[in-house]
Fold these 3 entries.
Entry 1:
Amino acid sequence: MDTAPFPENEKLILDLSNSMLTHLTTTPFSCSGRVPIPASQPVQLRFKGCGESLLVPLSVESEEQQRLFEALLNSMVPASFGRGTEEVFDEKYRRALKLDVADFLTSFCPYKAGIVDVVRRMLVPGDGKGEARTIRAGLYKLNVNSGPGGMFKAHVDTPRSEEQVASLVVCLPVAHEGGQLAVRHAGRELLYDWSQSHGVSSKEEDEEMAEQSSTSSPSAIYWAAFYSDCTHEVLPVTSGHRVTLTYNLYARTRFQPNTTQQPSIQPPPKQPSQLDGTQLLFSRDLASALANERFLPKGHVLAISLTHAYAHTSKHLDLIPARLKGGDLYLYAACAALGLRTFFRPVIECDPDDGEGMHRPFKVVGTKFEHMNTPHVLNKRFPEDAVAVAWPGTVLDKCKVTWLAPVSRGSKWEAAFGYAVVSFTFYAPGVGCLGVC
């Protein structure tokens, strides 16, 4: 850490790091809610090979609806999951049935139900510069986990676009036990239990949330949205059928949906649709440090390893604020409010084998996002040589950078499709490029 000759710089850096980490570990990474279903307006499902509509809530007294539900199950196929660039079937890892979006229709609309608007306010607020961010919800799958044994072990969703920011799971009111959805991020966990209509419980749950989550209705849809890089899993279903609609949520800047019904949500929204970076604790702490004439008087590059990972599915991707998630967006808003020059760069980790069992690990801060899953990279005996071409950057140990948090391990050099670990750098006044930005 280059803070000489003023020892108090170390304390200021530590205070900033603590302020930043406190902020990053308290911002939301998921939200949830409940949408009542009027008796006169059941959700309709139509699927390939059947000319009739299945109605939910599913009536246990209707032989006709039970017959249609069995027909739905018979029309479905085992669900696969992504492993690298391949689709894999393995019931030890995922046991579920699915229909692709081309094979079914539903009358349920997350826009009309008010869900998209809630998710936008909770997870995709504006960056504080006056430009609102909105969401496009794309229906993806109809899934059924049946008991006993239906489950999906811990995983991260495969990104379908670099614009994908979150995933939405909508649980239809079909009787089942078990099948809780666990969503985890940065050591925190939320557990959504829709079998008993408990709503949400977590390690962080307060009395107000507990009171809200105890309310239930057998004729309601429960849903949860979470950033798509969050680890999540479906715990085993012990009985019945857990029926869900899944959506991919994409960040947009010019799409404004209309909503007619406002669902109840857990937890209540605590942030506005536009961030005010000047009111954030980290912004005030950073402003105080920068105002100290003894804080990095010659200028410096300060860097943060963001808590969320970001999809890079194209050859070139410039990470823009419209794709930032959770606490990462708040950090950007705080720096932008102070007029600081900011840059987003990938962090890549290389641990190549030199052929004699010797490893020369190093990290690189990339100058831009690049697609590297190509033969001329993968076939290199010394992949760092290819990295220097395919992912131009600067070796981290040689950068004059002060990190405000422990440096992330970074993305493996061979991981070209999926998520990149990202560094967020900004200039303290008076500093030049220093070769990293």
Entry 2:
Amino acid sequence: MLAWEEMQAEGLEANAVTYGCMLDACVKCGHLEKALQIFAIMRQRGLHRNTILYATLIKGFAKSKDPLAAKNLYREMRAERVPCNVVVFNSLIDACVRACDLQGAAEVLQEMTATNVRPDLITFSTLIKGYCSNGELSKAMRLQEELQARQLECDEIVYNSLLEGCVKAGNLQLGLSMFQEMKNKRVRPSPVTFSILVKLLSRAGRLDLAVHLVSKEMRQMYDVPPTRMVWSCLVTCCLKARDLTRAVMALELLDSDCAALGTGRISMYAAVIEGSITSGEVSTALQLVDWAYSRAPPEDARVGLSMDLLKRVFETAGLRGAEAEAQETLDTVGPRIGEHVRGALEDVLMRSKGRLNLDDMGYKGSAKIARSQSSFAPTGDAVDHAA
């Protein structure tokens, strides 16, 4: 942008190539208004009749979720007799999909066919993702059939979209069928694929298989190490299912796998600690505070739980009569959190101690943390078990 302004200040005249580069840079950086100003200058100079330039601007309108403006540019292209290629139509479809205008996207596909521009994999992939996101799985499946009828092959992105559609529809069997097809066609699954499978299994009430998939099968059967994203998805699914035991176990497995460091790891611990407090599992919350620090790798020495969360844990412990256990936790993590933080938490614990009548609250104590993984480790393929 500075170079462009300097050119204008020096009175240097840009040629078509310079204009095109500047237009592309503005769209990529999100400066659509500036791109339109430059295009207006090009139009005045008669330098605008170029397919790539129009496609670039249409992509800009797609990013800003403005299908109407994108279609107006397309109409201008037709009026100016500028050839429309597959990139133009794919950008138009993307603009419609991003704005949730699936009817408009379908009309663009019809227009594409009418003008003898052959749809490619990106065309179908964009439409399939739109229908799956909108909960119209049957339409997405029909598009997959049309894709294959045109001798195109589904890639990982298409399969991931279809799997997401199965999650949204709660269709476990179809999702497993899609994953099997993916394997049969030797399309390598990615961590994104497995995150979706975790959601699919969780929604079907098979968290046991989801845990096994992440902790065993991803690495052993598919040679895909679980990433922070996959572990986070698993922890989130456990908490949504109110399965605190498996959420805790997921953290144990996470630490043994060393898959997440820094804020990613500590945010997962924070989520499960929050769930423990909400469920009244004070002992679990205190144990997880201990693990969050004692099991942290050396490079995470300065990454810790928020002071607000720590205060709520120790305040709850005091209210629930677990001050002895809380003090033991403080003694353990004290060297890692520092004297200042420890003193503040001890003060919170003492002030909250005995303020509520435990009998009136109906508190029954905390469930013990399950340390054995064997009861959640089915043998064989988790996907086969689910089927």
Entry 3:
Amino acid sequence: MAPACDRTDAIVVRCRCVSRENGGFHCENHSTSIDQTCPQCGAKCDPSSSSLYYLLSSDSRSQKDLEKVWRCISAAAKGFTIGAGLKGGLAAFAILARLRKGTFSASARKVGTVSNREAIIIAVKETLRYGLFLGTFAGTFVTVDECIAALGGHRRTARWRTLLAGAVAGPSLLLTGPNTQHASLAIYILMRAAVLASRCGMKSKRFGRICKPLTWAHGDIFLMCLSSSQILSAYILKQDSLPSSYRSFLNKHGGKDSVILQGVKEIASNIPFTNLKGIEKYYRSQGVNIKLDPKMKVPCLIVHGNQSCAAHVISFLVQAYGRALPVYLPVYFIPALIVHRQGLLKSPYTILGKGLLGTARSSLFLSVYCTSAWMWTCLLFRIFKRCNIPMVVMGTFPPGLALRIEKKSRRIEISLYCFARAIESFFTCMADAGLLPPATKLKRADVVIFSLSTAIIMHCYAQEREVFRSKYLNVLDWVFGVPPAISETPRCKNT
């Protein structure tokens, strides 16, 4: 009588037919002795082949685990590179401009002035902070994405996994500084998320009709006009409602001294002039002698001195174009050196020509935008023979039409950026007027908005990739390397 089979002496083997039926994934184990046959096909199991299978499957699992870990590390490193590169590049240009103006340490001893050495240290810290911010964001997103996929299954969690991962990664914004508010950035990212959500809605049968007005061909220009009305009005009437960096940008390209802006603000607000002598002194330093009347109704003499409105428009346009060129040269040529570095070797004249054309076109947009702001306000002041706040708001609406100069792909980007600034300025004005609670009472609302927005953006990236433009999709793919969608997994392809 043959001895009973001891389970401890049995060898766990895998029959080829079972592995073949399951495509090599999630197969069943059969506990058999070496002499037993497969319960499904009747063939004898080969322990040597099963051992080889276990070794290969173990190596395959280890390789996949290593790929997941590498994806997390790679995303964090690439995010840090992008954050540090962008912030560091802007800081480098700012420091070079500072050195060019000759603000050396001797003059920096004045009260409230930062020396060059201190400016460089601040720039390095800001560069590292923004690198850590984007590196942590990318690394956290990929880590959460991989952990949820490993615990809950890739296909089963695909519909909501990236939504949660994007929200969890959002608080990495705090790494830019625990006390640093980023309302403009958060609102801009929210605008980007709204655009992507609207594009998804246009594809939907349920929300298609609601989102239909968003397909208006010139909606970006109308949005720019609305933004322009708020931003340029705030530039003249209430500069403290704008972020300091954006305020500096407007003061440079607005082309007017602070005493001139103060004079226009006072006449528009119908309050007595406080510094007409300062305006006259400023024009004398420019070689122009003027005498200002405290009872004036139209501020054209304050805005452009003895020049006529038409002559001022022409001269201001030429000067504004010269100020705009240095802004757009790095915008076009630095990405060309990074993104199209291989194409520069093959067809350098084509790429450089496109860069020059883009620089000239964008510089023309900015110069026309700034020039038309003064042109339209002067025109309305002359027509109605008065200057007040509604006139300023009306006169700063049409300059947004200058966006038509830009190419179509850049219009929506510029209009959304300006709209985010306009929203921040508008709510700041409302809070200062007592119509809304102060922003200080809403602690880190920027982080909440940013997290909500990144959740929507990353969900669209994983599930609705066609709503992204190819250039943005390529960058996101390079950084995050999100796994394939449900329909692209091996099992779905086989079926």
